[in-house]
């Protein structure tokens, strides 16, 4: 081992004290290249008492390679005379492991020496390392969990500790503001100041043990954000609050999502209750889970008085029948649609409803659900009854009109045929006279008779068309107008009339009936125009759902 340092000390008591000291005293002489230690070096490095002396070179070799620059014992520092020597480094123990030592001393004045002590600080270093690792784990866990930590360790002086994550949750870089409650209070939303201040003061005063609250803090760049904070007070042996430790969690996205969901539910409720249809949501036990206002009015109850109530309790006489249908739909998992039923309310006249029953998928608890939608179709049923009645009356009237038209046509045809033949005889007779008729008069009689016969033919055609079923098809109205002009060519020429048609579209019509109606209207125009030659114009106007033909 090295040369004992205390061998040069003459005072026996001092020598005993140095040998028993927990720190190892040492003396290094760079000029003589000698190194002396107190006896504690044996236990510190596991040396043999009777082993060779520990030289300066040997001591240098025992310093951990990573720490040799820190130890700085390889050469005399020229500018270090009289300065203190402070260094922590590792020395290799005889069994191979390293021990940490705190080397403290002073460089000699005008002598190349270093005198001081070595203290085993391995346990402290291990604790520091464990604490550093724990802090890293804690910081990573807090950062991963998005939790900010604060410690109000000096309540009276308003001094706090904030974790790095706490700073970042407020949009701050760590250390850019002084952590204190006043900083938090200054960032509080005006609507949350009183609530949180009161709770925090009560906690700091010992009136509360723990607090939790949701509140808004001003983020450095994002405005106010929602946070969830909790804090717990720590008391001393006298019961006084010594410190308060708390956490902060950013819940802005969750609160924003909840607000949007609440708004969405409110809008759905608004739509749900504004619908005229009656809507129920029921379970398999015939309990009404939800219903809208229309359904409640039909039952003569309030919504809050019906939700959560079994239908057997509300309508014991009718519940069983409806429940049977409900269970059939639930078990079959097939909707029951378009059920038309007559109903008699408690305080009004009877009516008709159209009801759909739709099974819904089972919830997480396995309970089936049934959606019932019922629409009051009383007005529709009444309208259908009215249409059927009017259709019967129209059919009867049409039959009577048809019989009348047929009889009238038959009654007029024979005498008109006689008149026509007589007039033709007068015009083209073999005797060369006209029995006092002028040629113009005779022509007019003949033309009038022919027109009457044409009208009767039209009447016969209308009767035939009206009795036939409508056959609608896409029709070129331009071609149809040209066909009608050809049929009326004689009448148009006789009246010196003009007929002009703008380009017309295709239309979905019954060709025969439309042609007859068009011919009849044009013929009336030719017949009853009093002054001058008739002029007929045809054009088409588009409306939202129809084509309107103008003549």
Helix content: 40-55%
Write down the overall mean pLDDT.
84
Secondary-structure content class? alpha+beta
The tally of beta strands, per DSSP, is 21
- Stretches where pLDDT is under 50 for at least 5 consecutive residues are none
Determine the number of helices (DSSP H or I, runs of at least 4 residues): 18
How far apart are the first and last residues' alpha carbons, in Å?
134 Å
Describe this entry's structure for a reader:
By secondary structure, the chain is of the alpha+beta class. The chain is 44% helix and 26% strand. It is built from 18 helices and 21 strands. A six-stranded mixed beta sheet has the order 1-3-2-6-5-4, with helices on both faces. The longest helix has 51 residues. The chain is elongated, with a radius of gyration of 57 Å. The N and C termini lie far apart (134 Å). The relative contact order is 0.04. The mean pLDDT is 84.
């Amino acid at each position: 081992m090295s040369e004992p340092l205390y061998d040069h000390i003459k005072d026996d008591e001092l020598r005993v004290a140095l040998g028993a000291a927990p720190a190892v005293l040492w003396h290094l002489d760079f000029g003589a290249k000698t190194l002396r230690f107190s006896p504690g070096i044996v236990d510190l490095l596991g040396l043999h008492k009777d082993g060779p002396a520990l030289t300066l070179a040997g001591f240098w070799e025992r310093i951990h390679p990573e720490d040799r620059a820190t130890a700085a014992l390889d050469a005399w520092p020229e500018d270090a005379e009289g300065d203190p020597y402070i260094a922590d480094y590792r020395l290799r123990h005889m069994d191979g492991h390293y021990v940490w030592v705190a080397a403290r001393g002073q460089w000699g004045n005008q002598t190349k020496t270093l005198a001081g002590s070595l203290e085993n600080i391995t346990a402290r270093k291990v604790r520091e390392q464990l604490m550093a690792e724990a802090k890293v784990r804690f910081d990573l866990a807090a950062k991963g969990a998005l939790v900010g930590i604060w410690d109000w360790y000096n309540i009276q002086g308003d001094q706090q500790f904030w974790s790095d994550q706490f700073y970042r949750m407020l949009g701050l870089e760590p250390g850019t503001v002084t952590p204190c409650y006043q900083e938090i209070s200054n960032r509080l939303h005006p609507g949350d100041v009183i609530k949180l201040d009161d709770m925090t003061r009560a906690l700091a005063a010992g009136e509360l043990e723990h607090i939790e609250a949701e509140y808004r803090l001003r983020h450095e760049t994002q405005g106010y954000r929602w946070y969830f904070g909790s804090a717990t007070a720590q008391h001393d042996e006298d019961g006084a609050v010594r410190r308060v430790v708390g956490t902060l969690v950013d819940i802005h996205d969750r609160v924003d999502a909840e607000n949007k969901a609440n708004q969405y539910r409110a809008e759905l409720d608004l739509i749900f209750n504004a619908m005229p249809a009656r809507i129920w949501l029921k379970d398999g036990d015939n309990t009404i889970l939800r219903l809208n206002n229309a359904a409640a009015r039909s039952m003569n109850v309030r919504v809050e008085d019906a939700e959560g109530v079994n239908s057997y309790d509300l309508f014991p006489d009718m519940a069983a029948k409806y429940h049977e249908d409900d269970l059939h739909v639930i078990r079959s998992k097939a909707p029951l649609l378009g059920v038309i039923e007559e109903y008699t309310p408690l305080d009004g006249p009877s009516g008709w409803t159209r009801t759909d029953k739709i099974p819904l998928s089972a919830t997480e608890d396995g309970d089936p659900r049934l959606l019932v939608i019922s629409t009051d179709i009383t007005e529709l049923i009444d309208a259908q009854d009215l249409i059927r009645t009017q259709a019967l009356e129209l059919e009867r009237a049409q039959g009577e009109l048809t019989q009348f038209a047929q009889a009238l046509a038959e009654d007029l045809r024979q005498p008109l045929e006689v008149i026509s033949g007589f007039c033709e005889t007068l015009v083209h007779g073999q005797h060369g006279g006209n029995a006092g008729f002028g040629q113009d008069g005779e022509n007019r009689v003949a033309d009038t008779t022919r027109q009457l016969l044409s009208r009767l033919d039209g009447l016969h055609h209308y009767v035939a068309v009206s009795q036939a079923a409508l056959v609608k098809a896409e029709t070129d109205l331009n071609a149809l107008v040209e066909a009608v002009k050809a049929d009326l060519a004689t009448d148009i020429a006789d009246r010196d009339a003009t007929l002009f048609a703008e380009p017309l579209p295709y239309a979905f019509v019954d060709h025969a009936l439309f042609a007859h109606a068009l011919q009849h209207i044009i013929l009336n125009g030719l017949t009853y125009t009093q002054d001058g030659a008739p002029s007929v114009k045809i054009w088409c106007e588009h409306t939202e759902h129809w084509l309107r033909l103008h003549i």
